[in-house]
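subagent[fold] <- orchestrator: predict structure for attached chain, return tokens only, no commentary.
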Amino acid sequence: MAEDEPTVPPAMDASEHEPAFGPAAEIARLLDATEERITTLRDALDRSEKRLQSVIDALPIGIAVVSEDRRVLAANPVAHALVPDCEPGGVLPLEGEPPLTDGLAAVVRVASGTRRIEVRANAVAWDETPAFLVIIEEAEDMVTGRRLRRSGS
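subagent[fold] -> orchestrator:
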């Protein structure tokens, strides 16, 4: 090592420099407690979201959250089974594009196929964006006349 090169001290544990008392120690303890609390709350929120999602997925009716421009923001498996294009990122394909309005209750044809579906819509806030909770209770295959529920068959 050259004489003019600075020497770098070996890595030290940060706790060696933390005082065991005084304002800095109290702040360090409060930060640790806050981080633990945040972790606990995030874990609780994750568990709560998973429970809610499992309930929504188990509902015997189709449920989707759809933006004003018909973009599907969220949908449960039954909604997707009854209307195959009804999946997040897709567009709810209703023939004639009837406007989604609060309180809508109608039987409409799915534009991408031969199904007619019964829908209801209610306005909801979704990430501070206007959207609609769309409920799809059943569909009918217009070729066979067969009623479709739950699994889409």
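orchestrator: received. Logging for downstream: Helices lie at 23-58, 77-82. The two ends are 78 Å apart (CA to CA).
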